[in-house]
Amino acid sequence: MDVDDAFGAAGTSGADDAPSTSQQQPDQQLDDGFDAGGEFQDEFEDAEPASDFQQLKKALLNERLAPEILAYQGDLVDRVRERIEQQEREIDRLERDPDGDVAQEALSLERDRLRWLLKSYLRTRLGKVQQYAALVLRDAAGVQARVSPQELKFANDYFMSLGQLYQDQVLQHLPPNYNSLLRRFNGDQSQALVEEPDTDVFVFCKVDRDCGQIPDGPNGETADVNAGDILNIRYKHIAHLVQGGQVHLI
């Protein structure tokens, strides 16, 4: 199952790779993505494309850099998909306009950048759901509340397929106490084959809003964290701040 099957296609062409130009770097292209459509900004002003674009960039970075599965940004994904559909309709209209070649090319570039960003976000999440499928199904630490229904279904299908593969290839040849992945999965913590994220790793983050005192050290030390600060800190100390949008990973 790929990301299109799991989440619904965000588009059908030019989405797997970030579009590029001969004179721009990828990061610059992402930053400029919503400037390319210039004259079309007013038409879609209610959708606040620049804000959604920046939020999706931040969500993608957080998801890539956080060791755990973060909360699914369903409302943001829906708005971005609606934005892409609006752009598709406008591109179709410009294709019928003999003077719309330049505008069509600019808007197509903007659409491709946004669609690539959306698919990157969904693929990143799907990879983490696959990695921690057993953890999701076990609902340890309330993980199921942070995934979408499609991601939960994917985790279940993946885990059952993996279990069948292990059973056919390996488990049937092992002693009774070790020949069932499900038995060990449903057993106590010492017996369960459940991979968990390492939240003790150090990460870099930037503070978006004042956070007050947070733990900072092995002996109970704390640090005063203010907006604009850049920190190198163990993820477990700022996990709740990442989830709450007070800091973002860099």
From TrEMBL:
Function: The GINS complex plays an essential role in the initiation of DNA replication.
Compartments in which it is found: Nucleus
Start and end residues of each GINS subunit domain: 102-162
A Gene Ontology BP annotation from the UniProt entry: double-strand break repair via break-induced replication
Record-annotated DNA replication complex GINS protein SLD5 C-terminal domain positions: 197-250
Family: Belongs to the GINS4/SLD5 family.
Name of the molecule in the record: DNA replication complex GINS protein SLD5
Residue stretches of biased makeup (Polar residues): 19-28
Entry keyword set: DNA replication, Nucleus
Bias kind Acidic residues: ranges: 29-49
InterPro entries referenced in this protein's UniProt entry, alphabetically: GINS_A, GINS_bundle-like_dom_sf, GINS_Sld5, SLD5_C, Sld5_GINS_A
Name of a matching Pfam family: Sld5
